[in-house]
Automatic annotation (TrEMBL):
Upper classification of the organism: Bacteria, Bacillati, Bacillota, Tissierellia, Tissierellales
InterPro entries assigned: Cro/C1-type_HTH, Lambda_DNA-bd_dom_sf
Keywords, alphabetical: DNA-binding
Biological source species: Tissierella carlieri
SUPFAM superfamilies: lambda repressor-like DNA-binding domains (SSF47413)
Biased composition (Basic and acidic residues): 131-144
Protein name: Helix-turn-helix domain-containing protein
CDD domains, per the entry: HTH_XRE
Length: 150
């Protein structure tokens, strides 16, 4: 699992910001941001809030790599809640960093893939095809041994 510093660095570099640019945006010094990213020390709560607001991610994701889950959810709602794989979570985090035009481009690309697979007679889910390929890669990487990955 990544650290707070690694998640901050990933957000900053994905957006193409320098240390100084992020420091200016959240009211900290370049050295402070570098210290967070190198896990020398952790940002204050206010700094985490500022970073989360700027990058449009949850503070929970910055702090622990997980999205917020409401503790007041009913058991029924909990059973219906969706868990995201690491790939899905990473894709969502990257998507949130795009401007509206890029979001539209990504949506159109995914929609065209969906239409090709489901509306033109395709019967195979793109996601299930992807996971089958990943499972085959994992099996070949472990030479037939159980990798322990579920």
């Amino acid at each position: 699992m990544s650290t707070i510093g690694q998640r901050i660095k990933d957000l900053r570099t994905t957006r193409g910001l320098s240390l100084q640019e992020l420091a200016d945006l959240v009211g900290k010094s370049k050295g402070n941001i570098s210290g967070y990213e190198n896990d020398k020390y952790e940002p204050s709560a206010q700094t985490v809030i500022s970073i989360a607001k700027y990058f449009k991610v949850s503070t929970d994701w910055i702090l622990n790599g997980l999205e917020f889950q409401n503790q007041n959810d009913t058991p029924e709602a909990e059973a219906e809640s969706v868990s995201f794989s690491k790939l899905e979570s990473d894709m969502i985090q990257m998507f949130r960093l795009f401007d509206e035009r890029d979001k539209e481009d990504v949506f159109e690309f995914i929609k065209s893939k969906y239409d090709r697979a489901f509306k033109k007679g395709g019967s195979t889910s793109l996601y299930s095809t992807y996971t089958e390929e990943k499972e085959n890669d994992t099996k070949s990487d472990t030479n037939g041994k159980d990798s322990g990955i579920a």
